[in-house]
UniProtKB/TrEMBL annotation:
It comes from Pangasianodon hypophthalmus (Striped catfish). This is Tetraspanin. It is found in: Membrane. It comes from the Eukaryota. It is a multi-pass membrane protein. SUPFAM superfamilies: Tetraspanin (SSF48652). Belongs to the tetraspanin (TM4SF) family. The keyword Transferase does not apply. GO terms for biological process: regulation of vascular endothelial growth factor signaling pathway. GO terms for cellular component: plasma membrane.
Length: 244
C-alpha cells in the first residue's frame, strides 16, 4: 500500500537525499581508484608513505554507497525492512563519527608532542638521512618556517653555529642560509612546530564544522526514515483492517 499525503513528501526527501549520497559514494570509489593508480606511478619510497590511503578511500566510498542503497531503495519501494536497515546502519555510522571526533580532539595534544619529537629527529639526522632532509626542506618552504622550536635548533648544522639550511631562506639561492641564523630579513623566523600546530588546529576546526553539518544531515535522514517507517507500518495496519 502506497503512503499518502505528507508522507509522500517525506518519501521523496529521503529518496533524494540517498540518491545524492549514492552518487557521492560512487564518486569516492572512483577517486580511490584514481589515487591508487596515481600512487603506483610514484617512487617506491613515496608509495610506502602513502600506503593504504587509496584503500581507505575506496572502503569509505563502498560504505557510503551501501548505506545509501538501502535508504534509496527502501524509500522508493516503501520497504519497511530496508528502511529499518538504513536507520540502523546510519545510526551506527553517526555514533562512530561522534566517537572518532571526540577521540581526535582528545588525542590532539598527544599528536603535537609526537610531532615535535619527530621534528627534532628530522633536524638531528638532517645531514645523514636523505629522506628527512628532503622532508624538512619541503616543510620549511611550504610552511615558511625554520627549525622545530625556533631557528636555533640548527645551531649544530654548521661549525659556525649561525647557519641554517637554504630551505629556511625567504628567497632561496645557493648557500643563502650560511651565517643567516640571526637575519630575520633573509630567513623565516617562525618555528615549524608552531606552524604545524596552527595548521592542525585550523584543519581540526574545519573538520569540526564539516562533522557538525554531516551529523545534522544524518540526524535529519534518520528522522525522515523513522517517519517513513511509521507511515509504512500504519499503511500495513490499515490494509489489514480493510481486509478483515
Amino acid at each position: 500500500m502506497a503512503v499518502e499525503g505528507g508522507m509522500k513528501c517525506v518519501k521523496f526527501l529521503l529518496f533524494s537525499f540517498n540518491f545524492v549520497f549514492l552518487l557521492c559514494g560512487l564518486a569516492v570509489i572512483v577517486v580511490g581508484v584514481v589515487v591508487g593508480a596515481t600512487l603506483s606511478s610514484l617512487p617506491e619510497s613515496e608509495q610506502e608513505a602513502s600506503k593504504g590511503s587509496s584503500t581507505v578511500i575506496i572502503v569509505v566510498g563502498v560504505v557510503i554507497f551501501f548505506i545509501a542503497f538501502f535508504g534509496c531503495c527502501g524509500a522508493w519501494k516503501e520497504n519497511y525492512c530496508m528502511v529499518t536497515t538504513f536507520v540502523i546502519l546510519l545510526s551506527l555510522v553517526l555514533i562512530t563519527e561522534i566517537l572518532l571526533s571526540i577521540g581526535g580532539y582528545v588525542l590532539t595534544n598527544t599528536m603535537l608532542v609526537i610531532m615535535d619529537e619527530g621534528l627534532q629527529e628530522m633536524i638531528s639526522e638532517y645531514e645523514t638521512n636523505e629522506e628527512f632532509k628532503d622532508g624538512m626542506d619541503k616543510m620549511q618552504q611550504m610552511l615558511k618556517c625554520c627549525g622545530g622550536v625556533n631557528v636555533s635548533d640548527w645551531v649544530d648544522f654548521q661549525a659556525d653555529g649561525i647557519s641554517v639550511p637554504d630551505s629556511c631562506c625567504r628567497n632561496i639561492t645557493l648557500n643563502c642560509g650560511i651565517g643567516a641564523m640571526n637575519n630575520g630579513n633573509e630567513i623565516y623566523t617562525r618555528a615549524c612546530g608552531t606552524a604545524l600546530e596552527n595548521l592542525i588546529k585550523l584543519v581540526r576546526c574545519w573538520f569540526g564544522v564539516a562533522a557538525l553539518v554531516i551529523a545534522f544531515i544524518e540526524i535529519l535522514a534518520v528522522v525522515f526514515a523513522c517517519t517513513l517507517m511509521r507511515g509504512i507500518h500504519k499503511g500495513y495496519e490499515n490494509q489489514e483492517v480493510s481486509l478483515s
